[in-house]
């Protein structure tokens, strides 16, 4: 999953963070997108994976995220979706003392959202903190990433505990092990283009049985269903000509799964297309561009950003019958001025066959559709928020 992930983190924040931690100028090793950042580790070939260690933080890479999304129901079959994503952004390969005594830190961001399908309610929250013990950090030994009382942790019984709670909003879930981990490319290398190093290390865990509580306003709902997990880390995944992507992950009634993405160029056409078809037993079949067709339709215009997000995708994949992946409701747009500053659509979706019969559920993410230029005031505001967190927050 590229999630809101690379373009939003690297493009929107790397320059700001680099200026702040270096004191002036651009970040060390933070060249234009599409060029290798020599001081950061690169994705140049397959790696040896070991779990649970590789569920943890991978220091030395510029960006990393842990992503969870799911389709859930309460006892009355009322449908919900949720998203919980933790991002880590490195200002330098490792913390070093700069002139003036400033010690750079990783920055952590969290995006959390709940979709109440029946009531057409979409609620989201976001947070930002620099790395500090007990405040914002991630283990490098296992899955244990948190920001204060929000977190994702693999407990001693092998279950993943997901928590993001504040007044009028709550994600409090437990997910069992699913069909995975599944590497999203040979050796876990997931290409985002054709240039050297233009890739990430990426694995998924589909079909994680999930139960717990969602809270919206004064209402709490006991829910159960399925979660999809993505974990991805990289340093130079996207090119300067790439403007956004369309990503989907769907799990089907036969317990097979499908992950697809289409990265768009600045002219709006597909620049790079890839995906993985996962069997019910967890075997991965890697798909090339000529094996995938993704055609968006029925755009919804956001009243907040004027971005037009396709709400329906016709998908044809080699070896599978054609399907339509469609969102379960409009309005699932995250606005994140207090953290990444990037607006994007991330929402619960379903898959139907050509007769319209529902055959699967999942999540759909679309980025790069908000083409408004950021104002000078907005840029300065983002700069000051990150500056306060790095320099002034104890």
What is the rounded Rg? 20 Å
Mean pLDDT score = 86
Apparent shape: globular
Order of helices and strands, N to C? HEEEEEEEEEEEEEEEEEEEEEEEH
**Number of helical segments with 4 or more residues:** 2
Q: Give unreliable regions as ranges.
A: 3-34
Oligomeric state of the chains in view: single chain
User: Could you give a short account of the major beta sheet?
Assistant: 13 strands, antiparallel
- In the CATH hierarchy, the architecture is Beta Barrel
Structural class: mainly beta
| CATH-level-4 superfamily name | AttH-like domain
CATH class: Mainly Beta
Classify the fold: give the CATH topology: AttH-like fold
Straight-line distance between termini: 33 Å
Strand proportion, as a percent range, falls in over 45%
Q: Please estimate the helix content.
A: under 10%
Topology of helices and strands:
Elements: H1 6-22, E1 63-73, E2 79-89, E3 107-116, E4 121-130, E5 136-138, E6 144-147, E7 150-154, E8 160-166, E9 169-175, E10 182-183, E11 189-191, E12 199-216, E13 219-234, E14 242-252, E15 257-265, E16 270-278, E17 284-287, E18 292-301, E19 308-317, E20 323-327, E21 333-334, E22 344-352, E23 358-366, H2 376-392
Antiparallel strand pairs: 1-2, 1-13, 2-3, 3-4, 5-6, 6-7, 7-8, 8-9, 9-12, 10-12, 11-12, 12-13, 14-15, 14-23, 15-16, 16-17, 18-19, 19-20, 20-22, 21-22, 22-23
Helix pairs in contact: 1-2
Task: Provide an overview of this structure.
The chain is mainly beta and 394 residues long. It has one domain (3-32, 55-392): AttH-like fold, CATH 2.40.370. It has two helices and 23 strands. It has helices at 6-22, 376-392, and strands at 63-73, 79-89, 107-116, 121-130, 136-138, 144-147, 150-154, 160-166, 169-175, 182-183, 189-191, 199-216, 219-234, 242-252, 257-265, 270-278, 284-287, 292-301, 308-317, 323-327, 333-334, 344-352, 358-366. The strands form two sheets. Strands 1, 2, 3, 4, 5, 6, 7, 8, 9, 10, 11, 12 and 13 form a 13-stranded antiparallel β-sheet that branches. A hairpin with a 2-residue loop joins strand 6 and strand 7. The longest helix is centred in the first third of the chain and has 17 residues, at 6-22. The two termini are 33 Å apart.
